[in-house]
Every structure is written in C-alpha cells, then in structure tokens.
C-alpha cells in the first residue's frame, strides 16, 4: 500500500514535470502555429535565473521560481519575438530555422557567460515519509504548481478579454483585426506567455536537476512529442498527452528498466500519431480549450 | 603515362622539395607533442582539466630545460566533444606536426577513433582517462585506472562498513555496463548479493521511480556508475528523497566530472569514492604539484581531477622513457616504456605494466565532504588485473584490439 501510494506520487510528479516543460510550447504552438525550437533554452534560462537569484542575489527561492524566472524569461521572449519571430509568422519552416538559430545562440551565450559546468541549488523542502518509503517534498510542489498553471491558463483563456481575443485570433486573425483587435499584440503577448511558462518550468525544476547551458536538449524532444501528440487544443491536449506519457513512462520504468520506460513512451507516441495524426484533441475533447 | 621533359623535371623538383621538409624539421631544436581533448561541448567538464594538466606538464618540463636539451612544443586541438573531429585532428597532427607522442581522448569511443589512425601513422599514443579496460595494442599506453584497480577496493570497503546487499545504478553504455559487471563480480566474490542493476540512458534526468524502487529493495548500499550532467540529478534527487545518510552510496565515477564541486555539499556529503588521485593527497610531491599548478592556473581552479592527473602522469612516463632511450624515436621510446619504467608521481609510484601497456598505481578510497575528497584508506600498487587477464603484448606484440573481458 505504501509502495502503491509512493508510485502514484512519482507518476503524478512525472506528469507534472511534463506539464511544466511542455505547456509553454503548447501555448505557442497551439495558439500561433509557431514551432519554437528555442523552448528548451527558455527552460534553461529559467533554471539559471532561479539559481543565480538565490545564490548570488540572495533572494528567496520561491520568489525566484514563481516570479523572477517567468518574468525575466518572459521579457526575453518578448524581445526575441519583436526582434526575430514576428517577421516570420505564417512561414513555419523559416520560424523553425530562426528559433533553432536562437537556441544555438542562447546556448553559446550562456556557455560564455557561466561556463559549461553543471550548477544547482538544493530544495528547501524536507523529504516526505510514507510508511517505510520517503520521497522528495519538491515533487509535491511540482504537482501543485502544475495543477495551478493548468487552472490559471484555463481561466485566462476562458474568462478574460485577452483570452477571448487570443482564441479568436487563432481562428481568424483578419476578422479580429477588422473588429478592432490587434493580432500583432496578441501574438507578442502569447509568445511572451509561452516563454514565461518555460521560465517557470525551468525555475521549478532547478532544485532537482543539474542546470547546464545544454540542458534544453534533454527536455525539448519530450516537450515536442507531448505537444504534437496532444494536438492543437492547448490545455486539454496537453493534459491528455502528459498524463498518458507520464504514466506509461513511470510504470514501465518501475516494471522493467528506465530504458524500457523511455522506449515505451516513444512507442506510445508513434502509435498515437499514426492513429491520430491531428493529436489526441483532433478526435477527443473537441471544443475544449 | 607519358611524360615530357618539362613535366618530369617539375615533378622531380617537387619531390625533392618534399623530401626536404621532414629533414629540416628533424634538425630543429624542438620536440612536438600533441594533445586532443574536449575543451568545449558536452564533455568539456572532463576535458578541460586534462588539457590544462598537459599544458602544465609541458611548461614544467620546459622550465627544467626541456627533454634531451630540446624545447617541447605542444600542439593543442579541441575536438569539441565530436568524434569526427577526433579523426580529423588525429590525422592532421600525425601528418602535419609529426609529434613524438599524442595525448588524446576522453571517451572510449573517441579512443577507438584515434587509436587505429595513430597506429597506422606510427605515432605513439597515450590514452589517459579511466576506462573499462581491455585495450591491447603495442602503440598505445593507457594510464587511467580500470575497474579491477578501483572497484574491488571500494566494494570491499563498503561491504565491510555496511552490509552484503548491493543495488547498482549505472550509465547505459559500455563503460557503465562493464563497470556494473565488475561491481557484481566483486560483490559476489565477497559473499554479498546484488539485489538489482539498473541502467540509465545518458539523457535521463528523472530518477523518482527508480529511487522508490531502491527504497523498496532496501539494499545496504548503492553503487553508482552514473556518468555526465543529466545523471548528476540522481544525487540531487537522492538527497531530496531523504536517502542521503540512510543508505550508503559508493561510486567510482562520482567526482570524475567534478560532481563534488558542482553540487552543493549538503547534497552529497558522505559518498564514498575510489580513485587513483585526489587533490587532497598528503606528501610533498603532491603538495608541490598543487602549488605549482595553482601558480599557473590560479588559486580558484576548481579541482585537479583524476582524469587530468592521468594525463600528467602519462607525460611523466613518456618524458622518463625519452630520457632513458636518449631519443624520441617511437620504437625506442616504446621499448624504454616496456622496461617497466616508473615515475614518482603525485598519486604515488606509477609503473608501466609491460604486458598490457597499462599502469600499476596506488588507489585511494575516500569520502566526499564539503567540496573535498578526504582520504580514508590507501591501497598500494594495484595492477591492471582485468586487462592482464586477456592481453599479453610481450608474447603477442602484434595484437591490436579491445577485448571484452569475460567475467
């Protein structure tokens, strides 16, 4: 029984990590059809903001994770959108190339600035004991944060004017412009939001992983697989895909080995894309957000 | 092919010019050595200290008046953690620089790229990283430790202090796999049992359910052969799950990539490791090395690593062999090394094992604590028993392969 609950927590934790690394990408891809190859680097920047905020500036770790990382990375996203991405809307391949270039540049820049060594901070949360098992308190924080992010995003898209305009812009940008909306601004804010969510994810993960300028590569593939499998519907798609992949990955890791866990995740994604080329939400959960 | 008189003269002149070049080179007053180590890319945390130690070794030797009265010139290449560049640079340096010796390679795969190229080019090769053992080739000298030298000591030490039940976590490639096999063998030899062995691809960074599995198995100790940046997360999540101090962790890879510098000390304090070299080793020889090295690279240099020391000690062996042979000629130097030459190195006595071209070294079990590796126990003059079980270059000098050692 203890073991079942600890395993359930690990699975939820794994889903939470997938949500945090992929939700920013899902927002940008789902709303704007922009494939942001620099997403992994935004995660990395978020991690560094939290690490430097706590170790060098002496700020509170929760302030760094929850406020500083998303804020700074969101601003970086806005600037890059203004400099590069906004010129390339509607040209998917060009955006991919440009953001890939950005990702290489950010990795290079960070390597120059902080060096190619792994850094990290420890989580201030104590471990949590369940029977004779114990697990990291940080896992609970990740689960809570991911839940909060999903609910907040759903509220944002459903109940605010910005959310309404943003959803309208995805359907027909010209019509929004005719009605007095400003699609350019919507795109810029959406891209910034995606970057901020990546920053938040990076900050939240910093206490349990080692942050290094090339860490983005570790996450970008999984984030993409999750987003593509989820389909165009941002929140429902992301939740469906992360729950499926997180559960499969952890269960197979537990039953067999971590290698089989990774393989099972990828095989599952391949089958899913073959059967549902439009992603999970191309067939199920239609009409949700 | 018909040649007219002019073409023939031209060709002859060009050929004459080409033969001039090496002769002019041989008459110069310098000896060239090359180093090819990753100073950028994913492996640079391993490669940088190695490249620095070679630079230091050359500078130190030149300050003593060079070798055979000649200055040593170091040609450095950075293959950027890319094996294609290893091939390119190994070829280029062998043909263009004509070095007396090449020091190269962090991973085993990079070594297997470089080794045939240098063997064909008849250029002496030193591979200086700790690795899984088994390379058997008269043109190469492997100065890093192999599992038989360190793993056995650490397993025995850990079992004596904790208990008989082991749980192995390792990186999923040949080094991790082979090291895990050795851990298993030594645990069984010592009357213990291995509850489980788990391999992790090099990019896995989420160890949550694996740590739960370890808790469920409840071993007396965990042996880690995890490698690289992503795997560093294991140690952090181990601490975050409250396991540090509950179940002992021992590793022959921890600290090799400066994990004990990169991670906050409270996340790893108390791990046991076993290496040939520790920067904290007592003794005048090592104190002097650390002082001189810090003079050249600054007091804030992160750590003089085991891998870096492997390269430094390789250079010392090569220099001693050149002095003994009185020449940098490849075969003469190989024969001098094969006399079982030894040097007084910072880690203790280092001796070439003539049959395997590996080294006999002291190894040190230590505890990682507060960014230092504190010596617990020293084991003198450990032979490369794994490689000697398969490789005998005295009776079989033309051997040229890497054996997979059957356990």
Automatic annotation (TrEMBL), chain A:
InterPro entries attached to this UniProt entry: ABC_transp_permease, BCAA_transport_permease
Localization per Swiss-Prot or TrEMBL: Cell membrane
Membrane topology note: Multi-pass membrane protein
Keyword Transport: yes
Domain of life: Bacteria
Classification via CDD domains: TM_PBP1_LivH_like
Main localization category: membrane
Coiled coil: none
Transmembrane region(s): 6-30, 65-85, 97-119, 139-165, 186-213, 219-241, 253-276
Matches recorded under Pfam families: BPD_transp_2
Keywords for this protein: Amino-acid transport, Cell membrane, Membrane, Transmembrane, Transmembrane helix, Transport
Recorded family membership: Belongs to the binding-protein-dependent transport system permease family. LivHM subfamily.
Annotated protein name in UniProt: Branched-chain amino acid ABC transporter permease
Taxonomic path: Bacteria, Pseudomonadati, Pseudomonadota, Alphaproteobacteria, Hyphomicrobiales
Automatic annotation (TrEMBL), chain B:
Domain of life, source organism: Bacteria
Listed Pfam families: Peripla_BP_5
CDD domains reported for this sequence: PBP1_amide_urea_BP-like
InterPro entries reported in the protein's UniProt record: Peripla_BP_I (IPR028082), TAT_signal (IPR006311)
Transmembrane segments: none
PANTHER family recorded: ALIPHATIC AMIDASE EXPRESSION-REGULATING PROTEIN, PTHR47628
Name of the protein in question: Transporter substrate-binding protein
Organism the protein comes from: Hoeflea poritis
Classification lineage: Bacteria, Pseudomonadati, Pseudomonadota, Alphaproteobacteria, Hyphomicrobiales
């Amino acid at each position: 029984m203890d073991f079942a609950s600890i395993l359930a927590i690990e699975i939820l934790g794994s889903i939470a990590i997938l949500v945090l690394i992929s939700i920013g990408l899902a927002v940008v891809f789902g709303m704007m059809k922009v494939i942001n190859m620099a997403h992994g680097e935004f995660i990395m920047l978020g991690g560094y903001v939290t690490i430097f905020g706590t170790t060098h500036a002496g700020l509170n770790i929760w302030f760094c994770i929850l406020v500083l990382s998303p804020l700074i990375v969101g601003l970086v996203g806005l600037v890059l959108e203004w400099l590069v991405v906004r010129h390339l809307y509607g040209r998917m391949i060009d955006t991919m190339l440009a953001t890939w270039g950005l990702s290489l540049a950010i990795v290079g820049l960070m390597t120059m600035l902080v060096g190619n060594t792994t850094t990290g901070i420890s989580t201030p949360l104590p471990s949590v004991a369940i029977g004779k098992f114990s697990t990291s308190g940080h896992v609970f924080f990740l689960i809570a944060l991911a839940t909060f992010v999903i609910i907040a995003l759903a509220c944002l898209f459903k109940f605010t004017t910005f959310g309404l305009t943003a959803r309208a812009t995805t359907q027909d940008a010209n019509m929004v412009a005719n009605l007095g909306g400003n699609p350019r601004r919507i795109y810029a804010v959406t891209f910034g939001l995606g970057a901020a969510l990546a920053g938040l994810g990076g900050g939240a993960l910093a206490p349990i992983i080692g942050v290094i300028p090339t860490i983005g590569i570790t996450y970008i593939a999984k984030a993409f697989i999750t987003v593509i499998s989820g389909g165009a519907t941002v929140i429902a798609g992301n939740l469906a895909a992360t729950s499926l992949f997180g559960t499969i990955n952890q269960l197979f890791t537990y039953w067999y080995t971590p290698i089989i866990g990774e393989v099972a995740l990828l095989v599952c994604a391949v089958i899913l894309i073959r059967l549902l080329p439009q992603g999970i939400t191309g067939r199920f959960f239609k009409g949700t957000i | 092919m018909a040649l007219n008189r002019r073409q023939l003269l031209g060709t002859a002149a060009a050929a004459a010019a080409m033969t001039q070049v090496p002769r002019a080179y041989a008459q110069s007053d310098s000896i060239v050595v090359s180093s090819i180590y990753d100073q950028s890319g994913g492996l640079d945390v391993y490669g940088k200290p190695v490249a620095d130690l070679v630079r230091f070794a050359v500078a130190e030797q030149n300050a003593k008046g060079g070798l055979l009265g000649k200055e040593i010139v170091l040609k450095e290449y950075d293959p950027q953690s890319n094996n294609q560049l290893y091939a390119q640079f190994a070829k280029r340096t062998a043909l263009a620089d004509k070095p007396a010796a090449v020091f190269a390679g962090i991973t085993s795969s990079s070594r297997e790229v470089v080794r045939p190229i240098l063997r064909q080019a008849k250029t002496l090769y030193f591979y200086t990283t700790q690795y899984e053992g088994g390379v058997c080739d008269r043109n190469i000298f492997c100065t890093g430790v192999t599992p038989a030298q360190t793993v056995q000591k650490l397993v025995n030490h850990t079992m004596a202090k904790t208990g008989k039940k082991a749980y192995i976590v390792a990186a999923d490639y040949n080094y991790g796999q082979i090291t895990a096999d050795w851990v298993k063998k030594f645990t069984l030899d010592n009357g213990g049992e291995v509850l489980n062995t788990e391999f992790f691809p090099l990019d896995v960074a989420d160890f949550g359910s694996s740590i739960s599995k370890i808790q469920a198995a409840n071993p007396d100790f965990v042996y880690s052969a995890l490698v690289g940046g992503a795997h560093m997360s294991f140690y952090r999540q181990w601490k975050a799950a409250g396991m540090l101090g509950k179940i002992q962790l021992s590793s022959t890879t921890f600290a090799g990539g400066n994990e004990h510098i990169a991670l906050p000390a409270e996340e790893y304090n108390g791990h046991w490791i076993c290496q040939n070299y520790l920067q904290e080793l007592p003794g005048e020889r090592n104190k002097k090395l650390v002082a001189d090295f810090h003079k050249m690279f600054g007091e804030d240099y992160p750590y003089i690593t085991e891998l870096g020391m492997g390269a430094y000690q390789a250079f010392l062996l090569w220099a001693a062999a050149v002095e003994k042979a009185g020449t940098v000629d490849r075969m003469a130097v190989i024969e001098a090394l094969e006399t079982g030459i030894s040097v007084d190195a910072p880690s203790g006595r280092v001796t070439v094992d003539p049959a395997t071209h590996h080294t006999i070294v002291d190894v040190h079990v230590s505890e990682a604590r507060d960014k230092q590796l504190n010596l617990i126990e020293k084991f003198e003059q450990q032979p490369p028993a794994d490689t000697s079980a398969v490789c005998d270059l005295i009776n079989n000098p033309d051997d040229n392969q890497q054996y997979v050692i059957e356990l």
